[in-house]
Amino acid sequence: MKGLLHKTLLFYSIFTTIVLLSSYPFVYWAMDNLYKEDVDEAIFQRKDEFIAYNLPNLKIEDIQQWNRFNRDIKILPDTVASKEFNHIIEQNNYDTLVSEWEPYRILYTKIKIQHQKAVLMIQLNLVESEDLIATLGRFYLGILFVLLAVILMFAKFTSKYLWKSFYDTLQKIEQFNLEKHDAPTFQQSNIKEFEQLNKSLKKLISTNIQVYQSQKEFIENAAHELQTPLAVFQGKIDTLLQLSDVTHEQFEILSSMNDTVSKLNRMNKNLLLLSKINTPQYNETIHFNLAELIKKPLDFFSEQAIAKNIKIKLEIDDTVMVKANFVLTEILVSNLFLNAIRHNVNKGSIHISLSNHTLVFTNTGIPEALNNDKLFTRFSKSNPSSQGNGLGLSIIKAIADLNQWTVSYSFQNKLHTFSIAF
Amino acid sequence: MKILLIEDEKEISNSIKSYLKTNDIICEVTHKVQEALEKIANYEYDCILLDLMLPDGNGFEVLKTLKSLNKSDGIIIISAIESLDTRLEGFNLGADDFLTKPFHLSELLVRIHSLVRRKNFNGNNIIKFNEIQIDFFAKTVSVNDVKIDFTKKEIDLLLYLIGNHKKVLSKSALAEHLSGDMADMLDNHNFVYAHIKNLKKKLNEAGCQDYVKSVYGLGYKWEA
User: Where is the chain membrane-spanning (chain A) (predicted)?
Assistant: First the structure.
């Protein structure tokens, strides 16, 4: 992709060259005509001069003498069965001096010298057309060169002055991040279109921020408002369980209701978390040892893994430090653990490696690759029957994004790999 | 034991009240800050359960007043708000514990027990249940005066079970209690079974009676 100015410059150059080159034949033709007209005029003038000043005094005996000293004005005998009279013709004559053919403009006129008929021939040498073409060509090259230089300077000038505010705007939009909701302030421009662009962008951005903000608030409020009814629900189930005559069947129903409430609760908490990740609540960052953070919940997750006969293998560099929000990083690691356990198979394995700039979780699971496009979107579940709520990976992604870390997924040798590069 | 419950959601306060009643805990309920302040000024409570969002004000006002009155009642905040800031502010203002809604009533009961024990530390810090004795602060367990080697988690589980004496405990309540901070993450109850099995085995080997009853294989109950 080429830049705007580069393209303009290219177009201008091509256009200029084409116009200049296509004008070349016309200019040549015009120059040629003008030149010939001028020469013809000179010939007629010489004729008039000859008739006015030379002819009256010329005698027949002088003719030979005249012809000896005049190369371009000659008096020929009447016998010359010439082509046309009183009409200038063009003819190539052989020039013995330079041994080449030279173009001439020639006029034949009938005159009378002492009542004897004769023919007057006036000829003028023309510049050779090749010479004219070459000269004109050099001239054209000069013009082209100057024009291109001017265009280049013009382009530099426009980019520096005219397009300045445009590039400024472009750079600011590029850096704009909706989640950080810091609306950019654009440079004032005295060009109508750019000012219009800036205004429209400003409006678009502020609407976007507003919509984004209200959507976030909505999620937060909705999740929050749900907590209380959930608490009521939970309390009622706990109370019901205490009744003395609960049958096995009823207990089963209550148990599954219990699980559903905790699932709802988890989902709610995750939604709340997602809506809060970019808020000042999690702004504070500290330097900490990532290896320790990974090992901390290991007991708990090992216990979970044992229930599924999953083996966890660690390959951790104990010295790795990161600078991030501690609470969020804990959540990120827990989610990676949980993901690797939840989507694993019985007697599977989990391999965790931590090196200087990457944390990699590799685990066994379903024998096919997951859909990379949808993987990190909310509520996209690869396995509909799984216990997950489809928010775990979105949370991982959101936390990674916040720290400008990259999350990637790959599937190789029947192993699912999630890596975080920081 | 007498506690004060400041909670505006009637359904929640009813559930809490009825759950605690069978464990000999008298629960006084109010849903207004003003009324709560009057009660606190006039009566002594072992523990106060405090919701933060109340119709006539913020629960933090109650905390502030308590602090200014130099009262050292144990306070557990029960709130739907779950931000770190709210938690920290609560603790700064003198709250002893923070329980986010929704929670299991069994969890609340254990927290109340634990808080009351911490508050009366000069008094009774030994929990006795027939032949079992638990030293709350030393974190030791003995059966028939013989010390048994219990992990912290096992003691915690034992306290939870004994604290909810005669209550039916669902596996999910136990799982959430055992997983603590990781409560969000749980999706299998097998590890609850493993923990209970371990606990039963240790108690059994020490010559303790089997008090842990399974309820239809879906829950547990501590009963003599």
Answer: 9-31, 139-157
Residue B216 near chain A (CB below 8 Å) = yes
Q: Per the CB < 8 Å rule, is A231 touching B172?
A: no
Q: Are B1 and B24 in contact (CB under 8 A)?
A: yes
| Of A155, A223, A165, nearest in space to A197 by CA | A165
Please provide the CATH number assigned to the domain covering B2-119.
3.40.50.2300
B146 and chain A in contact, CB less than 8 A: no
Query: Could you state, in order of their start, the residue ranges of all structural domains in chain B?
Result: 2-119, 126-222
Superfamily of domain A280-421: Histidine kinase-like ATPase, C-terminal domain (3.30.565.10)
Chain center to CA of A145: 29
* Nearest CA-CA partner of B36 in B55, B17, B16, B18: B55
Tokens 């501590």 found at? B222
Which residue of chain B has the CA closest to A300? B179
Rounded to whole angstroms, the Cα distance separating A90 from B153 reads: 119
Chain A, chain B: beta-carbon pairs less than 8 Å apart:
118
Residue A221 sits at the chain B interface (C-beta within 8 Å): no
Its ipTM equals: 0.85
For the whole model, what pTM was predicted?
0.68
Crossing angle, helix B152-163 and helix B105-119, to 10 degrees?
110
Cβ contact B143:B156 at 8 Å: no
Q: B126-222 has which CATH code? A: 1.10.10.10
DSSP string covering B133-158: EEETTTTEEEETTEEE---HHHHHHH
pLDDT digits (tens, 9 = 90+) for B13-46: 999 999 999 888 999 999 999 999 999 888 889 8
DSSP secondary structure of A388-415: --S-HHHHHHHHHHHTT-EEEEEEETTE
Contacts of B85 in chain A (CB under 8 A): 281
Give the residue on A whose Cα is nearest the Cα of B80: A227
Instruction: Please state, as a whole number, how many other Cβ atoms lie within 10 Å of the Cβ of residue B72.
Output: 11
pLDDT tens for each residue of A171-213 = 998 888 777 767 888 888 888 999 999 999 999 999 988 898 8
Q: Which residue in the set A228, A241, A270 is minimally distant from B219, CB to CB?
A: A241
